[in-house]
Specification:
The protein has helices spanning 60-89, 93-108, 129-157, 162-182, 193-214, 221-234, 238-251; strands at residues 30-32, 39-41, 54-55, 58-59. It has 266 residues and is mostly helical. The protein is elongated.
Length: 266
C-alpha cells in the first residue's frame, strides 16, 4: 500500500517571545511621546517615531534645563537660609551698641579709656598699659594664691598626706612663675617701682620654697609638712602687697576687683 507523505505537514516551530504588556492592558505603563504623541512604554530612551531622546518621559533638553534651574533655585534658597542662621547666632547690634557707648563716654570724659580686662575706666592716662594690665592680673593671681593658701593650711592642720601637700606646692609654684613675669611690667609706671620689686621678691620666695619642698621624697611626710609650714609663713606677706597695689590704683582712679584674703587675713 502506497503512503502519500505530502498529506502530512509538520507544524511550524516558532520561537517563544517574552510576554510584553500590550498597550491598553491593565499592567502596562504607557505615556505619549511629548513631541509626536506616539504611545510608548515607560522607560523608553528614544521614541521610534520621531527619534527624540527621553529621560523619564521628558525630552532630554528640557530635562537638562529643569535640572539646571533646580540647582540654581536650591543654591539661592540654601544661601538665604545660611545667612539667616548666621545673622541669628551673631547679633551685629551688640558691637555697634558697645562702640556707640564708648564714643559717648569719650565725648563726655576725654580722659576715660576702656580697660582690656573690663571694669572701671581709667582717668589717669599717665599709667602705661603694661603696668595697668599687670596691676589687674596680679590682683586676680592673688585670689588664686589665697585659695591655695587656704587649702595648704587645711592640709597642714589635718595632717594630710605628702601627696596632697605636694599638689598644692606645685600649684603655688605655677602661680609664682606667672607672677614673676607680671612684676617687671609694673616698672613701666614710675609710681609702681617699689611695688614691682616687692612683688618680684615675693614670687621668687614662693617659687623657691615650693621647689625645695618638691625635691623631697614623696614618702618623707615630715619634709613636706616642714615645707608647708615655711610656705604659709611666706604667704603672710600677700595682704600687705594687696594693700599696696590698691593704694596705688586708688590714687590713679582705678578700681581693682575685690578679693577675700581667707586664712591670710590679718
Amino acid at each position: 500500500m502506497a503512503i502519500n507523505i505530502r498529506r502530512f505537514k509538520l507544524p511550524a516551530i516558532r520561537p517563544k517571545l517574552p510576554q510584553i504588556g500590550a498597550i491598553g492592558e491593565p499592567d502596562a505603563h504607557v505615556f505619549n511621546c511629548p513631541k509626536c504623541a506616539r504611545p510608548l512604554t515607560e522607560g523608553t530612551p528614544r521614541c521610534p517615531g520621531c527619534g527624540v531622546r527621553l529621560v523619564m518621559g521628558v525630552v532630554l533638553k528640557r530635562a537638562g534645563t529643569l535640572m539646571t534651574f533646580g540647582f540654581i533655585v536650591g543654591a539661592f534658597v540654601g544661601g538665604a537660609v545660611m545667612s539667616l542662621v548666621i545673622s541669628t547666632l551673631v547679633d551685629p547690634a551688640t558691637p555697634v551698641a558697645a562702640a556707640d557707648a564708648a564714643a559717648d563716654t569719650s565725648e563726655t570724659d576725654p580722659t576715660a579709656a576702656p580697660l582690656a580686662s573690663g571694669g572701671a575706666l581709667v582717668r589717669d592716662v599717665a599709667i602705661p598699659a603694661a603696668a595697668l594690665s599687670s596691676l589687674r592680673q596680679s590682683t586676680l593671681l592673688d585670689a588664686r594664691i589665697v585659695s591655695d593658701a587656704d587649702a595648704l593650711a587645711t592640709a597642714y592642720r589635718t595632717k594630710a598626706s605628702a601627696v596632697d601637700i605636694a599638689l598644692i606646692l606645685r600649684s603655688l609654684a605655677s602661680d609664682a612663675s606667672i607672677g614673676s613675669d607680671l612684676a617687671p611690667q609694673l616698672r613701666t609706671w614710675d609710681e609702681a617701682h617699689k611695688l614691682a620689686m616687692d612683688r618680684g621678691d615675693f614670687y621668687a620666695s614662693v617659687a623657691g620654697i615650693a621647689r625645695d619642698g618638691l625635691r623631697s621624697s614623696i614618702t618623707d611626710k615630715k619634709a613636706y609638712r616642714t615645707a608647708a609650714r615655711t610656705m604659709l609663713g611666706a604667704l603672710r606677706e600677700l595682704p600687705s602687697l594687696d594693700a599696696e597695689s590698691r593704694a596705688l590704683a586708688s590714687a590713679a582712679g582705678v578700681d581693682l576687683p575685690p578679693i577675700e584674703l581667707g586664712s591670710l587675713a590679718p
